[in-house]
Design a protein that fits this description.
This protein has twelve helices and 14 strands. It has two domains: 2-242, Rossmann fold, CATH 3.40.50.300; 249-343, Alpha-Beta Plaits. It is elongated. By secondary structure, it is an alpha/beta fold. It binds adenosine-5'-triphosphate (ATP). One of its GO terms (molecular function) is ATP binding. Pfam families: ABC_tran (PF00005), NIL (PF09383).
Length: 347
């Protein structure tokens, strides 16, 4: 539905050229929630602003459906932009207007009658559960409520696409969850394609179907959210994935020589990753029975990505050196990822 073909956006800073977006080709499908993740400065906002040509690519083409936006006249473009709503981290509401007026603003100049406009605004306020705040001003609302108003406003023109630029970054975790749920509802019930920019993997995990990882203006990896979590290929993707679970704390504990990871002779710290449900207990009991190991669990987690679980365990294993090796091989044969984090064996 949205297609980038070799899109670049070059800025000139102090006489030097700088590609904020560098030769990106990407396809976002109709009806999906597509995430774009990257660290600050990676080029996410610039890329997404190229979808509605708020930022005009220096080279390359942008298509929505079969129509090339980059080849349109200003009048055609104005028409097409109405199909694209946008929400921002800072909400961008008009402070001097009521909630009702903020939501009705995009309907100015539409062909709807006064009654139709009124019904539309009230329906949208109902959808975002803010009917009773219609005559409040933005300063009287919480951050979550402001973002709900912004979402209602973005929906006023019946868009096909919503672009969300860090729309939950200023919100606490509970409010973030509620706004993400609302975006999911908008996607599922109204069939609107949503493009979500974020620097938080948790947001990707919570609502996206697919994700692109950006670094230095380029898209370095794309895939379904499950594949990206189960099998991140690029170093930067691994960093994002690691940060969402407490598993990565093990490296800190090892580094700071925490008493938690103090090993007796013959012990080893191992990390397991697997993709099946309820594997943890079976793993522990099998390894102790088959290889006569004692396993002391330091961390354990099951992440649910959509409906699919991804599990992890960090354990201190105690047993003969030979049996620890055999256990590692046994797990690898069963497609369990095994990483030796600290090896206290002398043999
Ligand atoms: N109008 C501009 N003129 C010059 N440089 C710009 C302009 N807009 C963006 N940049 C630069 O392009 C790079 C990418 O910016 P962009 O805002 O797209 O990144 P981002 O990944 O969205 O980061 P953040 O998460 O911090 O918003 C940055 O180095 C930024 O300074």
């Amino acid at each position: 539905m949205i297609r980038f073909e070799h899109v670049s956006r070059v800025f000139h800073n102090d006489g030097r050229e700088f590609a904020a977006v560098n030769n990106v080709s990407l396809e976002i499908e109709k009806g999906e929630i597509f995430g774009i993740i990257g660290f600050s400065g990676a080029g996410k906002s610039t890329l997404v602003r190229c979808i509605n040509l708020l930022e005009r690519p220096t080279s390359g083409k942008v298509f929505i459906g079969d129509e090339e936006l980059t080849a349109m006249s200003p009048a055609e473009l104005r028409q097409h932009r109405k199909k694209i709503g946008m929400i921002f981290q800072q909400f961008n509401l008009f402070a001097s207007r009521t909630v009702y007026d903020n939501v009705s603003l995009p309907l100015k100049g539409s062909n709807l009658t006064k009654e139709q406009k009124d019904k539309k605004v009230r329906d949208l306020l109902k959808l975002v559960e803010l009917e009773e705040k219609a005559s409040a001003y933005p300063s009287q609302l919480s951050g979550g409520q402001k973002q709900r108003v912004a979402i209602a406003r973005a929906l006023a023109n019946d868009p096909e696409i919503i672009l969300s630029d860090e729309s939950t970054s200023a919100l606490d975790p509970r409010t973030t969850r509620a706004i993400l749920d609302l975006l999911k509802k908008v996607n599922r019930e109204l069939g609107i394609t949503i493009v979500v920019i974020t620097h938080e993997m948790q947001v990707i995990k919570d609502i996206c179907d697919r994700v692109a990882v950006m670094k230095d203006g380029r898209v370095v990896e794309t895939g379904t959210v499950f594949d990206i979590f189960a099998n991140p290929k690029e170093q930067i993707t691994r960093e994002f994935v690691e940060n969402t679970s407490n598993m990565s704390r093990i490296y800190e504990l090892v580094e700071t020589k925490s008493p938690v990871v103090e090993l007796k002779p013959g012990e080893a710290i191992l990390r397991f990753r697997y993709l099946e449900r309820n594997v943890s207990e079976a793993l522990v009991s099998q390894l102790s029975r088959k290889f006569d190991l004692d396993l002391n669990i330091i961390f354990g987690s099951i992440e649910l990505i959509g409906e699919n679980p991804i599990g992890g365990l960090v354990v201190i294993a105690q047993g003969t050196s030979d049996n620890i090796n055999k256990a590692i091989q046994y797990l690898k044969d069963k497609n369990v990822g095994v990483e030796m984090i600290l090896d206290g064996r002398t043999a």
